[in-house]
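Interim report to the steering committee. The following record documents the input for NADPH2:quinone reductase (326 residues).
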Amino acid sequence: MSHAIRFHKTGGPEVLSWDPAPDGDPGPGEVRVRHRAVGLNFIDTYHRSGLYPVAALPSGLGLEAAGVIEAVGAGVQGFAAGDRVAYGTGPLGAYRETRVMATDTLVTLPDTIDDTTAAAMMLQGLTAQYLIRRLFPVQPGMTVLVHAAAGGVGLIACQWLRHIGATVIGTVGSSEKAELARAHGCDHPILYRDEDFVARVREITGGRGVPVVYDGVGQDVFEGSLDCLARRGTMVTFGNASGPVPPVSPLTLSDKGSLVLTRPKLMDWVATRDELVAAAEDLFSVVSSGAVRVAVHQTYALRDAAQAHRDLEGRKTTGSTVLLPA
């Protein structure tokens, strides 16, 4: 009997339970995947806590994983038993040992990328891809600000931005994280708890500010981030690690230099099969080439997901974290 992590009510990490979960047989258009590695992301804590409501309880958890196809249902094209696959956009329920699912969110893994790396990079890597390559296409010579530069998305984004030829300013919470971010392409790490990051950004940019801020932190840095932007700059707030961003008046954006504010989500940027495949191929290319190294700094047994959530929310993790099925 396989197992899955579920939650029967919203709340803290203690609501996560290790429940029996039958393997199931794939129906038409479906495959059964045996997970070899499952990704952990901050959005998982939002689903668990109720910040992002789920459709019904009890519910599974998790949006990304990598594994091998065990069985194929009728009518499936492009996938076969034995194929290595990964996904990073759900549907919700990746925290399980085996899973029956439709193939529309699956992509085939190249031999150059192992299962642990794939599980660690799909959601975070696809997020970095749309943020810096499509939502605001960063050009060589630009200077940009990345909050949580030592986090999973941050470390991927810093490396990719360096590969593009941008200068990266990044905020971090400790000197250890500053060194980690620097080693992964962050030119100017800022300890935001000890320094005025707005003043430092203005100093680094000669008073001009940056054309774009990528913010997965939220409440703690939002207002300061607006003051880091150059005229007509773009504020990209894509996460709430420190809490939701408070309401902001459109007049504030006008007063601070005709700023653009966006609150995007990955699923809208890989909404079609063609968009998903193109984004994944772009990600696989920079990882396979070595331009971007995926930093898996923590692994936990899948059944210990609650502890992984405690460590993630307690800011005890760096880079990516992967949950390993038995």
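The first strand starts at residue 3 and ends at 7. The committee is asked to note this result when reviewing the revised timeline.
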